[in-house]
Design brief:
four-stranded antiparallel sheet, five-stranded antiparallel sheet, Immunoglobulin-like, alpha+beta, Arc Repressor Mutant, subunit A
Amino acid sequence: MAETQGEAMTCAQATELAAGFVLGALEPSEMASVRAHLSTCREAHPEFEELGAVVPVLARTVPPATPSPDLGDRILAAARAEQTKSDEAGARAALQPMPVPVPTPAPWLIGQRRPWAGFLEVLRRPAWLATAVAAVLVMAVLGAWNLQLQGQVSGLTAYRDGVAAVLDAAKASGARVAVLSPAAGSGPTGLAAVDPAGRLVIAMRDLTPTTGAQVYEAWLIGADNKPVPAGSFAVGPSGVGTLAGSLRGAEAGVVVALTLEPGPGATTPTLPIIVQGRAGSSAGVIPGPASGL
């Protein structure tokens, strides 16, 4: 929160607004209050510099999700078409004449296939049956489309929340950040942060969904080149995965890696490595993928 009327902003208030300040997401009055505090405060406030170094990383790992300009028009048009077909079907049903009773066949015809039987069956069917079937198909297609959109929105929300958790861990003084990406070519990407309290936070996107008992296992690889398991997580159809685990203090320059394991509790990585990155100081230049295993 910004300072109250006539009161100067405190260091604690400025630190609380640090993430929003470097992202330019605060209200104009709050942005001005933070700038005024930084210009006069005797404290160093390294969290602003550290979080500022993470912003370029976000620009590379969080692609903009802009809907197509005609998405709203297409949804409204589909809804109107569905309503029109439903109204027409109801009107046709109301205009249908009462069914004409079919005389009972003579006993000697019972059990025999008459040549005109199929034609009589067609005449008995309501004329609006085809329209009703078409309406059901339209609703099924719209329902599947709606589920797909909901899945995409859910995945974006989950990844946004995961990145927010990484930023929260990265703003601590002495925290280290790693950009996680494939060793070569395209594939999943993400961010990881290791803070001095021993908290590891990971946010990943575009991962292949896990099946059965499969999990993605995070590994920390120090100077001794020995992978240490740091937590596992499953991934659903959205391809988004997040991890928030605790571990003993990690050394500077530790490599964060991710592998796909047949089940939880792995003690050695199953190759190949999916993504990896070296955790550097979030106040400096963040290195790219590093060799580890």
